[in-house]
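User: quick one
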Amino acid sequence: MTALVILVPALPLFAALAPIAPLRARELGIVLAATGTGAFACAIAVAVHVANHGAFEAGSGFLYVDSLSSFFTLTVAFVVVLASFGSIAYLRSEERRADLNRLQIRLYAAGFALFGGLMLASLETGNLGLLWVLIEASTLASAVLVGLEAQARSLEAAWKYIIISSFGVTMALVATLFLYYSASSLVLSPNQRLTWPALFLHAGALQHDSLRLAFLLAVIGYGTKVGLAPMHTWLPDAHSEAPSPASAMLSAALLNTGMYAIIRFQALARPELGRYTNHVLLVFGFASIVIGALFMVRKGNFKRLFAYSSIEHMGIISVALGFGGVLGLYGALLHTLNHAIGKCVLFLTSGEVVQRWRTRDAGRVAGVLARAPLVGGVLLLGSLAIVGSPPFGLFLSEFTIIRAGFRGSSWLPFLLLALLVLAFIAFVRTTADMATGEPQAAEGAAERQSIVGASPLVAGMTVLLVLGLWIPGGLNSLIMHSIGAIT
Amino acid sequence: MTLLLTAESLSATSTAGTLLDLSAVVMLLCAFACLGSKLFDRYIAYYAFQSIVLAFAAGVVAYSLHEPALWALAALTFLIKGIGIPLATRRFLLDRLELHRDAAVSTGLSTSLIIGAFLTAFAYLAIRPSTLPHGLVASAVVPISTAIILLGALCMVVRRHTIAQLIGWLILENGVFLGAITLTATFPFIVEAGIFLDLVAAVLIMITFVSGLAHRLATATAPELRELRH
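Assistant: Done. Structure below.
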């Protein structure tokens, strides 16, 4: 079992060594996809084991997998699989066009593998200090991807990304210190005072003031990673400048990893601080939804549009955590999974569009459906899915969250609903114009649809559709067990 | 004698406590000096001196608690933060890009010093009364380290040059470390080592980005980093 748990992050981390070997770009892509798929298979096996035998702990808490971690591991691993198939297509086309030199292609493969592996590793540790170390390390690996294209724009985005998130994550380190301090009156060994299950057992006895400071700083610190407003400013730049498969990973995996850390801190703080934790998350959540929805109204770079939509969705998840209760948590986790898949598909689609049209400006793209029916279709359906229209999964999870809201307060869910409608109009207005309309004569005709490039799009949309119609029993019990693990 | 012998049990009146207090004050002064300067090599010199004082403080805690892991931490701090990072920044950024004077300051020096003084007072008011017990060294040092964190953040805000922002972040990080060694001296070493590794990797990547940016724009100041607005 230990070997299996270690293999989940170790396979992608091992792939980070592949660029040393004299492989061509597409072969590097295949290595990424193979190790990603292997990691996903191991993650499924771990989830099954955890479901049958309860939480797994080894190495005095440095390895710790309960239902919540295995839920997030599955989500992230699935995103890594989709994005790595997208990477094959990306690397192949960059190789053909020779936009990137050999070093950049190698850096891409190494950065991508490290990024995925470190995120998976951070989800499998029970030590909050190590969690911090791994999240910061995955930030660094992803910063390499953002700055990869090495033009002034992407370097600028990478600088903004690394300096703002380093600042934020340092706040999260201070939070970890105060959490450690808040446990100093308990009879725990130094190592246990950082280990989540041991702390959770004594969560009611943590020192009140330091715990409150720790929780606030954790929300601000890890919230910077999640892209909660007002700490979101790095996000649109980094997401729009990174290569599309990397944007997909940033949006669908990294943000969730940050949210995972916040969920852990909230679970520790709730017994002592009570509803206070919910109110904090509601405030940051609504701020993010408002910011995300308002900035989506402006037409322009479509990758920025998707990035603002990520801010909005992280806000929705945060609001769901704020509503709390079993229903709220259920909605939050389900929405995490749905958003991850949906946004991953959309960013990969945007990559296909960028490759054909050579622009990121939504105003200059028209008639995707006519030029590339599959990409256009996925763009249209994916947009409808991400704004929460039935029959896709996000409708179900947003509906659950709104229902959870009505249990607690009478007017907040209405506000949420109004903002969702605004986001719906703003988002679909842009993407529908891109998908339909008459294409200009020479635009986007160059490339044939590759099967590798199409496979993650079709697979992702299929899963999203299935999740909208039917939640498999295994997934349902995994989510219920996850809620049990943190309440 | 007890289960846990941590820095929280160091009393403020012991020799070690006095030395720690003193180091913290010197580190705070370094942060202020950095805030009040306009020359790039001064920034780096103050940062290097601050890191060496931090290494000394870590050594004091290591000596009084007999923690071998903390000795290692003190040595690492001295070698990497006190010598390595300042040398690398000087060699790869200042010398190669021929930078001397920081012209990209958004707030006047005296204004930022006054704001810094307010932040220091705020750190005392916010941290001291409720969270920490009196009479222990942590209750004297943690407010100072909070002030250093805030001053580092202030540096990042009022300076627009990327190198100044980098130094601001490093000062902030020093503040966190000072808090860490007094508040949580028994932090597991593997975690501390990981934090250090991250820091080094972050600085290396940042240096690469800054020099890449500076090659493309004559001077990489934040107001010139406006391309993404459009």
